[in-house]
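Q: My labmate handed me this sequence with no annotations at all. I'd like to see what the chain might look like in three dimensions before we decide whether it's worth expressing. Could you predict it?
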Amino acid sequence: MEKFLTLMLALQTRVAERDEKGQGTLEYVGMIVVAALLAAAVIAAARGVDLGSVFTDAVNSVIGG
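A: Here is what I predict for the chain of 65 residues:
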């Protein structure tokens, strides 16, 4: 039973290490996307652009509405 528990612990450790590879990169990409969206919103607000209509028009053009 002790060998089984040791094996399961080793397997769980390997799976946990493998699942976290690249996680930092994904978090950085997410932060960059959020920062870009925030910057675009600030620039659009400063120019007086109605972002709601811009996004609605973009979505309608994609879905054909």
